[in-house]
Amino acid sequence: MNDTQTYEKILRDRQRELESRLSRIDGDLGRTKEQDSDDRAVESENDEVLEGLGQAGQEELRAIGAALDRIAKGTYGTCVRCGESISTKRLGAVPYAPLCEDCMGQG
Fold first, then answer.
1. What is the pLDDT of residues 14-60, one digit of tens each?
2. Most buried residue, 5, 22, 45, 59, by CB count within 10 Å?
3. Residue-averaged pLDDT of the chain
């Protein structure tokens, strides 16, 4: 298996994991709320945390989708800003990284 295939498998596995997690979050957010005011306050706080996790998961899913598009186009592992190669160290840490370390540091 070449490196691109390895990263594609990693990305698709993570994509499935996130989709499953987001489905559970949606289910938790859609449940019936408690009548007790103290319980409702706790549920409200929990819902805020779940919404934050859901938003972060959706952003990661978008990044994964973009990385899978780059794989399909044959540009995966190339910085979208400068065109230089993204290090395997960086891709190992963040397989959906669109930028090399230099461009990432430039903000």
1. 999 999 988 887 776 666 665 665 656 566 666 676 676 778 889 99
2. 22
3. 85
- The residue assigned the tokens 């840490």 is 93
Nearest to 67 by CA among 76, 58, 80: 76
d(CA 86, CA 103): 10
SS3 call for 79: coil
- Residue that has been written with the tokens 């819902």 in this structure: 47
Cα angle 69-7-25, degrees, rounded to a multiple of 5:
75
| Residue with token string 């499935």 | 16
pTM for the model: 0.76
